[in-house]
Amino acid sequence: MTGVGVPGWLTARVRQDDDRSSRAVWSALAEPGDAVAGALVGACGATAALDWVAGVVSGAVPQPLPLVPTDSPDAAARRLRAAAERWAARWHAVDPDRDLAAAARCGARLVVPGDPAWPCGLDDLGALAPFALWVRGAPPSAPRSVALVGARACTTYGERVAVDLAAGLAGRGWAVVSGGAYGVDAAAHRGALLVGGPTVVALAGGVDRAYPVGNARLLEEVVGTGGSLVSEVPPGAAPTRSRFLQRNRLIAAMSAATVVVEAAWRSGAASTAHHAARLLRPVGAVPGPITSAASAGCHRLLREGVAVCVTDVDEVVDLAGDVGADVAPVHHEDDTRAIDGLDPLARRVHDGLSRRVPHDTAQVAARAGTTVAQARAMLGLLELEGLARRLGSGWVVDAAGE
């Protein structure tokens, strides 16, 4: 791999550890969610794909490499040429030595597919999977994890629900995954930290850049208490709007289920939910007041059938857990009454009684719409059941028996 325009790192570092170092380069060369780059790396391998780009940049254009089996040669060539122009624009700005040094300074490390710390759920993204993760803190590969996402401008209700759900999940050993933003994201991370549970923060920029700055202390607490900060772009990379949107697919893919706590009609949280649905991951949404704009996105997800309604930790675990093993308990309020099992005639006579004013048998019969004989017989039965009692010359409801 030689020629004009080929940086020195390409012949030095990539040869030391081809796949890992090449993936570090790709994480800086291609934007998150670049499907052409992902398909190229998937078809040819990270190093061979990088070799092809080096040839394009140096002017020694090789034959186009296939992207996917269904592509025609012409289509593959067109897509590769367009993508190569994007990659060439930042080719000389890429410096994996600099990125790895920056990672070492902030205590981060590079994790690639096949490493024990690699979240296997990311592989389900196919060509959209990240080339590598830059990780600070514990390995982000928790076997049981749930994404809790929602509005930045959340209400007090949304914040409370996020904290409660996160604390309940973390207390049961589930890792809480979110985006580290203000609002619901931060509340979810705090809820997990309250009980000393694991939480994973997926960032849109480098793991050495606290964003938002106001959550810098929270992010450091996550790392210090056994959680993780992860990003698919190298240290120093700036968070951009497109990277925030692409970050949502990582949150969905790393989690067994995604729960939207609060979301506006159009929001990043709803985007995460749709990513999860496309991955066939279960999606839950927390209902809110119908007058609350902060819950409009949740209600939309429910109405369109993207999400199911969840209201507590048991229901979230039921959604995300193993079939049959994590079923939410059924809560039945005991609303049965003593008169429910009575004969219909006895119930009518009981309805003819007053709680305070005694009525004689004839009055009870008139109020219940029965004969006097029927009322007399049923009053005797109600008295035996403890549902009626004599008071003076009449009858009243025996409240003690209800």
Quick recap:
Helices cover 44% and strands 11% of the residues. The chain has 402 residues and is an alpha/beta fold.
Protein model, in words:
With 402 residues, the protein is of the alpha/beta class. It has three domains: 8-94, no CATH class; 120-320, Rossmann fold (3-Layer(aba) Sandwich); 338-401, Orthogonal Bundle (Arc Repressor Mutant, subunit A). It is 44% helix and 11% strand. It has 16 helices and eleven strands. It has helices at 8-16, 18-29, 35-44, 46-58, 73-89, 96-105, 156-171, 184-194, 216-224, 241-253, 268-278, 296-303, 313-320, 344-351, 361-368, 372-384; strands at 108-111, 133-137, 145-149, 175-178, 199-202, 228-231, 257-260, 283-285, 308-309, 388-391, 394-397. It has a nine-stranded mixed sheet, with helices on both faces. Strand 5, helix 9 and strand 6 form a beta-alpha-beta unit.
Topology:
Blueprint: H1 8-16, H2 18-29, H3 35-44, H4 46-58, H5 73-89, H6 96-105, E1 108-111, E2 133-137, E3 145-149, H7 156-171, E4 175-178, H8 184-194, E5 199-202, H9 216-224, E6 228-231, H10 241-253, E7 257-260, H11 268-278, E8 283-285, H12 296-303, E9 308-309, H13 313-320, H14 344-351, H15 361-368, H16 372-384, E10 388-391, E11 394-397
Parallel strand pairs: 3-4, 3-7, 4-5, 5-6, 7-8, 8-9
Antiparallel strand pairs: 1-2, 2-6, 10-11
Helix pairs in contact: 1-2, 3-4, 7-8, 10-11, 14-15, 14-16, 15-16
- Helix-strand topology string: HHHHHHEEEHEHEHEHEHEHEHHHHEE
Helical fraction equals 40-55%
The major β-sheet equals:
9 strands, mixed
Find the count of extended strands (DSSP E, 2+ residues): 11
> What is the CATH topology assignment of the largest domain?
Rossmann fold
Mean pLDDT figure:
88
Low-confidence stretches: 1-6, 11-15
- Number of structural units classed as domains: 3
Distance between the termini: 89 Å
- Numbering strands along the chain, what is their spatial order in the largest sheet? 1-2-6-5-4-3-7-8-9
The helix tally amounts to 16
**What's the alpha carbon Rg, rounded to whole Å?**
32 Å
So what's the overall shape? elongated
